[in-house]
Specification:
The complex is a heterodimer. By secondary structure, chain A is α+β, with helices and mostly antiparallel strands. Chain A is built from six helices and eight strands; from the N terminus they run H-H-E-E-E-E-H-E-H-E-E-H-E-H. By secondary structure, chain B is α+β, with helices and mostly antiparallel strands. Chain B has six helices and five strands; from the N terminus they run H-H-H-H-H-E-E-E-E-E-H. Classes of the chains: A alpha+beta, B alpha+beta.
C-alpha cells in the first residue's frame, strides 16, 4: 500500500465509482494517512476542522430545518466535498459560488463545520465514513467524505444499510450547522469557527 | 371520507389555483382529482361515516365543511405532494452537473415514474420531499413522526426503498412499479395512518 496506489484507486476509474473502488481496494482505510491529491499535501487529521457548504432546497429543508440525506449519497459515489482548514478566501467564495450556481440551489443556508474526528466516528465501533484529502478544480484545500462499503452484505441488505448510514451522518452533521445569508457572511463565520 | 375531504379542504380554495403536477401549464382536471379521491376511498372506506361524496367531486374545495384545524395531523399535507411533484417536474429538466459537483442528468422517464409514484404515496399520510441522488435518480424522502424512509426510482418500472423506525427496518430492491397501483411490499412497510378525525 503506497500513496500512489491509493491515488490510483481514487482516480481510476474515478467519477461515481471512486468511493467504491478505493474502499474495496483498501477496506481498512489504509489510504487515510495519505493525500489522494498530491504527495506534498497532508492527509486530513482527526482534529482538523472541515466545512460542508449547504444550499437549499438541495441540501437542506428550510421548513423542518434539517439536512436532507439525498445529497449525502455523494459519499458512495464521487465523495461529498468539503472545504479544509486553511482554504483561502477565494477558494471558499469560489466553492460557494459554484454551489449556488447549481440548478438545484435556490439559496445559501450556511455550512456544517465539524472536525474530521466527528465524521470518522459515525458508526463507531464500525467506520461508516472516511475523510480524504482530494482534488478539486481551483481548490487546493479540498477533502471528501467517502462512505465505506460492506461487501459481505446481500444487495438488498446493503441497500438498506447505506441508507441508514446516511441518516447517521446527517444526525452527526445536524449538530454543527452555521447559518449564513450571504457568501461573505459565511466566510466570516467560517473564519470565526476556525476554518 | 373525512380524511379525504380534509385533504381537499387544505388545498387551494378553487380548482383554478390548482396547477396540474403532471403538466404545470395546465390545471388539474376534475377527472384527475377524482381518480386520486376514488383510489383513496377504495382503501380507506368506512361504512356509515363520512360526509356526502358530492362535496368531494366538486372542483370548488371550499364546499367542504372541514377546516384546516379539524384535519387530523396524520393527513398528508397536499402541499407536500404537490411540492414533490413540482420539484420532480423541475428536476426532470436538469442537465449534467445539476448539483455543481458532477452528478449526471436525470432520466426524464424515470422522473415521470417517480411523479406517478408520489401520487400513490400521497394518501399514506407521509411527509414527503423530492430529491435526486448522486446518480441523478429521483429520491423520495418520506417521514411520519419519528419514522422515516426513502424510495429511489432506479428505472421507469423499478424502485428500491427502505423504511426505518418501526419495529424493524424494512426495505426491498428492484420492486416492480407498473404505474397503476402502489406495490404491496412498499405499502405494507409504511406505518398505518391514524384515521381518527376530530369531531
Amino acid at each position: 500500500m503506497t500513496a500512489e496506489a491509493c491515488r490510483l484507486a481514487w482516480i481510476e476509474p474515478g467519477g461515481l465509482q471512486a468511493a467504491r473502488t478505493i474502499d474495496v481496494a483498501f477496506p481498512k482505510g489504509e489510504c487515510e494517512v495519505f493525500s489522494l491529491s498530491m504527495p506534498e499535501r497532508a492527509a486530513v487529521a482527526d482534529d482538523e476542522l472541515v466545512a460542508r457548504v449547504l444550499t437549499s432546497p438541495g441540501d437542506y429543508d428550510l421548513t423542518i430545518q434539517e439536512i436532507l440525506t439525498g445529497k449525502l449519497t455523494n459519499c458512495y459515489a464521487g465523495g461529498l466535498s468539503l472545504i479544509r482548514s486553511g482554504a483561502t478566501d477565494d477558494e471558499i467564495l469560489s466553492t460557494v459560488a459554484t454551489l449556488l450556481a447549481a440548478e438545484d440551489a435556490e439559496g445559501l443556508v450556511g455550512a456544517v463545520v465539524v472536525s474530521a474526528r466527528v465524521l470518522r466516528a459515525v458508526g463507531t465501533p464500525e467506520r461508516y465514513f472516511r475523510v480524504y484529502d482530494t482534488d478539486a478544480p481551483g481548490n487546493l484545500s479540498h477533502a471528501d467524505i467517502v462512505g465505506t462499503f460492506d461487501t459481505a452484505m446481500s444487495k438488498s441488505a446493503w441497500d438498506k444499510a447505506h441508507r441508514k448510514r446516511r441518516r447517521a451522518l446527517r444526525d452527526a452533521m445536524q449538530q454543527h450547522i452555521l447559518h449564513a445569508v450571504t457568501p461573505e457572511d459565511l466566510l466570516l463565520q467560517l473564519r470565526a469557527a476556525g476554518i | 371520507m373525512f380524511d379525504i375531504l380534509a385533504l381537499l379542504a387544505q388545498t387551494a380554495p378553487t380548482a383554478a389555483a390548482y396547477a396540474s403536477p403532471w403538466d404545470s401549464t395546465k390545471l388539474l382536471t376534475r377527472e384527475q382529482l377524482r381518480q386520486v379521491v376514488i383510489e383513496h376511498a377504495k382503501r380507506h372506506h368506512q361504512s356509515g361515516t363520512g360526509l356526502p361524496i358530492e362535496g368531494a367531486s366538486s372542483p370548488t374545495f371550499a364546499a367542504s365543511a372541514l377546516s384546516v384545524r379539524e384535519a387530523p395531523a396524520s393527513v398528508a399535507r397536499p402541499s407536500d405532494m404537490l411540492s414533490a411533484m413540482k420539484r420532480l417536474r423541475a428536476m426532470s429538466k436538469y442537465g449534467d452537473n445539476w448539483d455543481g459537483e458532477g452528478a449526471p442528468a436525470p432520466d426524464a422517464a424515470v422522473v415521470e415514474a417517480a411523479i406517478t409514484l408520489v401520487g400513490f404515496l400521497s394518501p399514506e399520510g407521509l411527509r414527503m420531499r423530492a430529491s435526486l441522488d448522486a446518480e441523478g435518480r429521483p429520491l423520495l424522502l418520506l417521514s411520519q413522526g419519528e419514522e422515516e424512509g426513502e424510495v429511489v426510482m432506479t428505472s421507469p418500472t423499478t424502485f428500491n426503498f427502505a423504511w426505518f423506525g418501526g419495529l424493524e427496518d424494512q426495505g426491498d430492491i428492484d420492486v416492480i412499479f407498473d404505474g397503476n397501483h402502489l406495490p404491496s411490499t412498499l405499502r405494507d412497510a409504511l406505518p398505518k395512518r391514524d384515521l381518527a378525525v376530530a369531531a
